[in-house]
Design a protein that fits this description.
Blueprint lengths: L5 H16 L5 H20 L5 H17 L11 H24 L7 H13 L5 H19 L4 H11 L5 H8 L6 H26 L1
Length: about 210
């Protein structure tokens, strides 16, 4: 098998871009499958301490923005891969800033784990008031995140996301997609996560 050269890769990207401009209804799916995983790996390698959910969201946001306004891409300035990588990195940096401002270090906690931790800290003489308040805020955020899920499928996905699951195979197993090809699993999961993220953002914007 002859390896793909950089010029070959750019020809493929140019053809995909032209299909999007022409209104091909399947172009967005093919573009997502062509770029999403590679962009996620690139960002995850550059920002190894960043939550992979934020990386996935940044890539999704960058691709969706490109799908809505493909005419903004100028092939004379850089490759489509480079353009999308730059957009995804910009979105990731913005998301990290927003995440720090809104949530700090809050993480959903199991009530049994919380009770055991509180007892241990009380026995050790620590002041747990602030910690308990933080845990209550985390529980409220979890409930808010689950509220945007409207179907059983969406609820399964959101539960797994809140548990920190990152493997597409784990989502596919929970959703009963065992017979679905991996590429189609990724596409379906991307669409569900995008719906959930869009509702989450709209809800937070309405609440100010």
């Amino acid at each position: 098998m002859v390896p793909e050269t950089r010029d070959d890769g750019r020809e493929v990207e140019r053809a995909l871009h032209d299909r999007l401009l022409a209104g091909d209804p399947l172009a967005t799916v093919d573009l997502f499958l062509h770029f999403a995983v590679a962009l996620q790996r690139r960002l995850a390698a550059k920002y190894p301490t960043t939550d992979l959910d934020l990386v996935e969201q940044a890539v999704s946001d960058a691709l969706l923005d490109y799908f809505r306004r493909p005419e903004r891409y100028d092939a004379g300035k850089r490759s489509l891969r480079g353009y999308l990588a730059m957009a995804a990195e910009r979105d990731l940096l913005n998301l990290r800033d927003q995440h720090r401002r809104r949530y700090g270090r809050l993480q959903p906690v199991d009530p049994v784990e919380l009770d055991a931790r509180a007892r241990k800290e009380w026995e050790e003489g620590d002041d747990i008031g602030d910690r308990m308040a933080d845990e209550e805020a985390a529980a409220a955020l979890r409930a808010e995140a689950m509220a945007v899920a409207r179907t059983d499928e969406e609820r399964i996905v959101q539960e797994l996301r809140l548990e920190g699951e990152r493997s597409t195979a784990a989502y596919a197993a929970a959703l009963g997609w065992g017979d679905v090809p991996p590429a189609e699993q990724r596409r379906r999961l991307y669409l569900i996560k995008d719906r959930l993220d869009q509702r989450w953002r709209r809800g937070r914007e309405r609440r100010g």
